[in-house]
């Protein structure tokens, strides 16, 4: 392991980079990019109307100005229905996975994910409250924003929960990771109880909406939804990988990280803010989608090693691939019906995670 210390020229919060050994598996990024491209093309093509990879590429080429022969019906299906859905899956998968990798680095715990500190449960509580409680404020929001009122409430709930956990973890002017973890567990339990209470008060119609939100789905994807989510996830995909060097320092322990010049206050604050931004916005448009932010960083870490700079970028690519593939399965495995994508990611992710835990135990 080597340590590179750079004198800060500006007010950057993290002037230190910690590098864990030589770069492992230089083929990882090219492989992930190719796998993501293939998964995206296949996911766009599968469905009630099959669109071959050649046709997919031809239609995409026409969208950027090329004049290639393409079927008009398939063009409409792809551009109006499937392409927005796949783009939404790419954004949500990458955002959740990179947030999960950052949370694991912050807590120095491979079992950590964004739901651990109540981000997902806070978003869910706000969405359920919006559905069940027919107050004047909610009615006004529904009248002004329509469908997006529910998404906005969910996003605000995620941000407020994250802020509450962060404030509760402040001890003597600085945030303590252990206290943050315990506060997150307590807030998770409280939000879950309140969500259950509100669910018990819901009507049959409201229960159907709550069920959709709980199980997760990309079925409501439109270009408006994609463009609304893009700035939030884009900021996260740019911001979190820049904190990889500081997370490497934190892996040595808080005392050692401070000796290396890592600004722990800024690091913890920005990891929490960006994770809440990513997960809150994703839950707001697609509901709860589990295990992507937990399993994907594990798999990337097995190949890329412990360097968070590589793990964060690899998790973004891997998460986009995993969720896009899962959505393609959800649309086709029980066609013409559709499986909730949150259920499918749990069915696929839980066995993989158990396999990882068993392998870790046997290696110990």
UniProtKB/TrEMBL annotation:
Source taxonomy: Bacteria, Pseudomonadati, Bacteroidota, Cytophagia, Cytophagales
Gene Ontology annotations for the cellular component aspect, listed alphabetically: plasma membrane
Family indicated by similarity: Belongs to the binding-protein-dependent transport system permease family. FecCD subfamily.
GO biological process: siderophore-iron import into cell
Membrane topology: Multi-pass membrane protein
Top-rank taxon, per record: Bacteria
Cross-referenced SUPFAM superfamilies: ABC transporter involved in vitamin B12 uptake, BtuC
Membrane-spanning residues: 27-51, 83-103, 115-133, 145-169, 175-198, 210-240, 270-299, 311-333, 339-358
Protein name: Iron chelate uptake ABC transporter family permease subunit
Entry keyword set: Cell membrane, Membrane, Transmembrane, Transmembrane helix, Transport
PANTHER family the record matches: ABC TRANSPORTER PERMEASE PROTEIN MJ0876-RELATED, FERRIC ENTEROBACTIN TRANSPORT SYSTEM PERMEASE PROTEIN
Compartments where found: Cell membrane
MF terms (GO), sorted A to Z: transmembrane transporter activity
